[in-house]
Every structure is written in C-alpha cells, then in structure tokens.
C-alpha cells in the first residue's frame, strides 16, 4: 500500500506536521508517567485502527521496559488485573475521549473525578492533550494511508 500523501513533501502539511511532532516531544517530557503515556497512545490507536501508531507505541513501550503481557491486554484492560487504578482511569479517559462520535456523550463527570484522584493538574492537562494528540495523528495516518506499519524501529521518531 502506498501513502496517498507525503506529509513532509508539501509546505503546509510539512510545517504543520513539524508542530505536531513538537507537541509529541512536549508530552513525552511531561510529568505524566511514561508507561501511562504509551498505554493511552496504544489504546487510542487501537480504537481508531491506526496500524502505524499501534506498531510504534507497542515497540516504544517494549523498548522502555513495558511487559508484553500488559501490552497484549490493553485492548481488554477492564478484564485485566495487570493495570493500576491510575492506569485504568487513564485508559477509560482515553476511550471516552476517543469515542465521542459514537454517541457516548464524551467524558462523564464520574470518570473525570476518578482520573483527578490519581493525577495532578499538570498530569491531567498532559493526559487530555495526549488523547487529543493521538486522535489527530491517528486520523492523519489513516486518511493518508501511511504504510509503515510493521517497519517501525523503536525510538525512530525521538
């Protein structure tokens, strides 16, 4: 499969994409735990069906020391016992924040209260930005049919 558009080849998309990557670097440097970031990025990408991002975040998480068991269970996190309460709250926020078009009504107040029990304001901001960022990047990759799923090497974009 060939990409429909090279996001770096046009002036407008190239400039915008560089800013997106800057957002990603800023989020990586936030106080939100790195493991939580990778789990959330992976879950959002699974929901959206973005193979490029699933490949990237699974490999980056493994390279950072995440267990393969936890990565395999992200899609079924509700039934899994390997996630902390904080991670479970973040994964649910990722799902509710991603499925807004499914008639789910967005993030409900009860979930927001649970997430706020585990993360400070800085981490909450990073978490909300991460969910939004991943949804944007997933859509860019899916719309343009980026073909590199399976070819990613851990750390390639860092």
From TrEMBL:
Keyword set, alphabetical order: Oxidoreductase, Peroxidase
GO molecular function: peroxiredoxin activity
Entry keyword annotation includes Ion transport: no
Domain of life according to the entry: Bacteria
Pfam families, alphabetized: CMD (PF02627)
Domain Carboxymuconolactone decarboxylase-like: from-to ranges: 17-95
InterPro entries reported for this sequence: AhpD-like, AhpD_core, CMD-like
Protein name: Alkylhydroperoxidase
């Amino acid at each position: 499969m060939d990409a429909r558009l090279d996001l770096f080849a046009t002036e407008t998309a190239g400039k915008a994409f560089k800013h997106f990557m800057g957002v990603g670097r800023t989020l990586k440097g936030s106080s939100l735990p790195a493991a939580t970031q990778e789990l959330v990025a992976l879950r959002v990408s699974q929901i959206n069906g973005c193979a490029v991002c699933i490949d990237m975040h699974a490999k980056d998480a493994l390279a950072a020391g995440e267990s393969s068991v936890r990565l395999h269970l992200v899609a079924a996190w509700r039934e899994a016992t390997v996630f902390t309460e904080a991670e479970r709250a973040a994964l649910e926020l990722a799902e509710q924040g991603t499925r807004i078009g499914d008639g789910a009504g967005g993030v409900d107040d009860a979930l927001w209260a649970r997430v706020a029990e585990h993360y400070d304001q800085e981490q909450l901001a990073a978490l909300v930005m991460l969910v939004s960022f991943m949804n944007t990047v997933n859509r860019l990759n899916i719309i343009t049919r980026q073909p590199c799923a399976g070819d990613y090497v851990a750390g390639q974009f860092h």
